[in-house]
Amino acid sequence: MLCVSWFAVLMGTSQASVNALLLITTDRYIMISYAYKYDIIVTKATMITAISIGWISAAMVTIFPLLGIGSTEQNGWCRMEEVCTNGYMLTLFFVSYLVPLAIMYLLYARVGYIVYKHRKQIQALSIDAEDSVTQINAINEGNGMSTSKNARRNERKKWKAAKTIFILLGYYTVSWLLFFINILLAGFNNTDDEMR
After folding, report:
1. Terminal C-alpha separation, the chain
2. Across the strands, what pairs with 84?
3. Going by C-beta distance under 8 Å and a sequence separation of 6 or more, which residues neighbour residue 72?
4. Taking the CA atoms of the chain, what radius of gyration do you get in angstroms?
5. CA-CA distance, 192 to 196, in Å (whole number)?
6. How far is 180 from 186, CA to CA, in rounded Å?
7. All structural domains of the chain with their residue ranges
């Protein structure tokens, strides 16, 4: 039972971590996509509800093995593939990894598209602004270029942040994929050994 408890807590906290990443992704998506409605959409009540749902789903991942659902008798070893059935691990793989990963990729792809589109609009405005500033400078002999330079600098920062997010999402994908492939292969190898 100690081994099952250890595994249940491990998977529950991992699920809570994935849920937190998904909430952050959703928050960034809402902030970029609905900037003017962000304060209306993201309220204290919606955040408490979203965080509660995240922790409840993590608790469900934890509670199933403790109730004996998806767990098996172990043969003296405390390894995940010895503790949980292949069906439970496959379900966990899809529910805890593939579905959140697909949602995160879709939302970040949308954020990336919006940032790209916004960057192009700023560049077009900057070119027009530079022409206007050049004309004003010729008349006033002032330095009005700082506004368009600041806009370009801010856009570069946003683009760099978006690239960083995609890199982190790639690391998330690889690390969890390797974890689940290892667990699933080990589980299926145990099944093959038992059939022989």
Report:
1. 27
2. 71
3. 82, 83, 84, 85
4. 25
5. 7
6. 10
7. 2-195
> What are 102-144's pLDDT values in tens digits?
999 899 889 888 878 877 877 777 665 555 555 554 444 444 4
| Cα-to-chain-centroid distance, residue 52 | 17
Q: How many helices (H) and strands (E) does the chain have?
A: 7, 0
Which residues lie closer than 8 Å to 78 by C-beta, 6 or more apart? 2, 3, 6
Whether the full predicted model's pTM is greater than 0.70, yes or no, is no
Cα–Cα distance between 172 and 164 in angstroms, integer? 12
Alpha helices for 1-98 (secondary structure H): 2-33, 38-41, 44-66, 80-83, 86-93
Rounded to 5 degrees, φ, ψ at 84 are -110, 150
Q: Which residues contact 104 (CB under 8 A, 6 or more apart)?
A: 21, 22, 25, 169, 172
The CB density around residue 131, as the number of other CB atoms within 10 Å, is 11
Fold (CATH) for 2-195: Rhopdopsin 7-helix transmembrane proteins (1.20.1070)
**DSSP class of residue 71?**
B
d(CA 18, CA 154) in angstroms, rounded, equals 30
For residue 29, CA distances in Å to 23, 116, 146, 162, 171 come to 10, 14, 30, 11, 20
CA distance 169 to 160: 14
